[in-house]
User: What shape does this take?
Amino acid sequence: MTGFVSTRLALGLVAALALGGAALAQQHQGHGSHAGHGAPAAKAGDSAATTAYKAANTRMHKDMDIAFTGDADADFVRGMIPHHQGAIDMARVILAHGKDPALKKLATGIIAEQEKEIAMMREWLKANGK
Assistant: This one.
């Protein structure tokens, strides 16, 4: 998949998630966007990968529960940074515990792209005084 195609696919998925999230946010108004949606605690029988995925999901959902300001641009960027970091954390789990070479290659690409996008979003926040 070319960078352009994968970026367009990612943007399409983000848009779809954002639209679904808006509806969900209206249902849970006043409860934070991810309140109560953390991953369940690790269990004694969980594999190392499952434990790592649960920890990454819990951290991501906690960090995505931002205080919304009414500034759609800033709120989007502030929420997407931890979302992208969650993708990086999950990709690192597959690199550490996965077996499929194609998925490991995908994970490596995800890490590279998400790190670039996080850097761009942090720069945007800084440049816009957010």
The chain is about 75% helix and 0% strand. Confidence is low (pLDDT under 50) at residues 15-35. The radius of gyration is 16 Å. The chain has one domain: 37-127.
